[in-house]
Amino acid sequence: MTLLNNRKLLVSILAVLAVLRFVVVPIIDWQNTKASEIESLKSRLEKSKALVAQSDYLQSVKQQVDEQLNNQQQVFFHGDADSASQLKQLQNVEKLLKARELNLRSSRWLGKLDHDSYTELRLEINITGELIHFIQFISDLETQPLPRRFVEWRVNIKGMTETEMGRLTRGSAIIKILVSPTRQSGNTKEVDDV
Predict the structure, then answer these.
(1) Judgement on whether residues 81 and 175 belong to the same structural domain of the protein
(2) In a domain, 72, yes or no
(3) Are 155 and 173 in contact (CB under 8 A)?
(4) pLDDT value at position 7?
(5) Lower CB count within 10 Å: N or C terminus of the chain?
(6) What is the pTM assigned to this prediction?
(7) What is the sign, positive or negative, of the torsion defined by CA atoms of 70, 74, 75, 76?
(8) DSSP alpha helices (H): ranges in the chain?
(9) How many domains are contained in the chain?
């Protein structure tokens, strides 16, 4: 009889263990999963509350970053590095030359260098005229607010005396022009004029 009672006891213990294994353990695992999800959501809620509390500060930082970006964008010409843009830049250089009474003998584009956020164009010009006018042209070009800079220049001077600066018999210069991609405003392209 004790053996039968022991078997009944063992079967009931086995049934309790099976219920624990297949019913209670999954419920406890589910509770643990839900508890970790609640903790994650609670953490996200706290972070969101902190962001909302700092929204004024973040807005001011965003405004400062936007201002810095605009200041940096002013360093570039905005447009495409295509032949129309190159022609426009050449015409701007020709205007400066004409204002200083220099003669443009020839010009050519030396190609472009693509960088991550901008393209660098290089223009070679050959000019003649008075040396004093060439010096003024250099000054005009270098003081432009947008980036046209001399990479190099060479001059041959004729007729220099103690009282005269002389003439350029042959002057050549390579000018670097930085171009950033065209800014889009709505559906129209906006290209800055110089």
Answers:
(1) yes
(2) no
(3) no
(4) 83
(5) N
(6) 0.51
(7) positive
(8) 2-19, 25-53, 55-73, 83-99, 131-142
(9) 2
